[in-house]
Specification:
flat, single chain, mainly alpha, 3 helices, 71% helix
Amino acid sequence: MVIDSILAQIDAEIAKLTQVRSLLANTGKIAATITERLTKKAPKAKKPAKVAKAAKPAKAAKAKKRRVLSPEARQRIADAQRKRWAAQKAKA
């Protein structure tokens, strides 16, 4: 008798979870459909009449100048890292 009631509760829970899953799966599809509709209906901006445009600068000119470390700075950083590694190794 007890097993039958447990099985009935499990079946009820499975039915509830199946229903929730189908609702969630459909919600995703509905949201995607709504998004597609909104993007298709959105008015497109019209291009202005042909106007002479200034030439765009090359991307290379826009790139920021790279910062350069001096050899002494590189050495200090390397020494500090080796010190951290040695401390970590000593703990292990």
